[in-house]
Amino acid sequence: MRIPILKLHNYLLISIQIDLDDQTAIQFQEDLLNKIHGSGATGVVIDLTSVDIIDSFIAKVLGDVVTMSDLMGAKVVLTGIQPAVAMTLIDLGIHLQDVPTALDLEQGLIKLRQELEE
Amino acid sequence: MDFQSCVNIKKEWDIVGARQLGRDIAKKIGFGTVDQARIATAISELARNIYLYAGSGKVCFEAIDDMNHKGLSIIAIDEGPGIEELSQVMEDGFSTSGGLGAGLPGVKRLMDEFDIVSEQGKGTEIKVVKWLR
């Protein structure tokens, strides 16, 4: 399964709406980096509103893709993390401290604009 | 004890299958969304450990329905190499697979009870329980 990546001006938008297995997560990581490279996007929003579980592996993949994108010059914001998911992540001991987040897609785009100073 | 069902863990996709079944059972027992997420996440970690370190095994679920106690018991069993240093794997940040090392200590925090028995060359059995409040 592939997660669709949409381009909007110089941003990429992703809404994850499936229960992520490891393979799909890794594939997504690669797809996103290729898409950043190909499109020259400067900002990325990954919306997690429909994701009801993030375990340590998925958290690592998401955290890594933020760092990797940053290396390539694109800022990533994670949006829409559910209350139950936030609580579970902290129980797991995962803080995702260096990862920019926002309440929803709209706030995420505002945050991106601030980060990119546009 | 209400019912018992098991998911065999052989391929990576079984991790998703196990946590989906576990979440369904948790929902039926009456757990709220936060505890459902905790239970599903714990199952994911346990099933991934089986897949990564033992190759195959199973995760079994049992609804507990005593007079004054309701809950979900989960057992993860494999016949893998066993865990050499149990105290080490229970430390936050310890990993041999390049992961976050959040797995087992995380599972312990997500659930109410946690028991692990591991014998080198024979396998590992982890039993966790979440009580309905």
TrEMBL record, chain A:
PROSITE patterns: STAS (PS50801). This is RsbT antagonist protein RsbS. It comes from the Bacteria. It holds the Pfam family STAS. Signal peptide: none annotated. PANTHER family: RSBT ANTAGONIST PROTEIN RSBS, RSBT ANTAGONIST PROTEIN RSBS-RELATED. Residues 1-112 form the STAS domain.
UniProtKB/TrEMBL annotation, chain B:
It comes from the Bacteria. One of its GO terms (molecular function) is kinase activity. Residues 34-133 form the Histidine kinase/HSP90-like ATPase domain. Pfam families: HATPase_c. Keywords: Kinase, Transferase. The gene is rsbT. The keyword Transferase applies. The lineage of its organism: Bacteria, Bacillati, Bacillota, Bacilli, Bacillales. This is Serine/threonine-protein kinase RsbT.
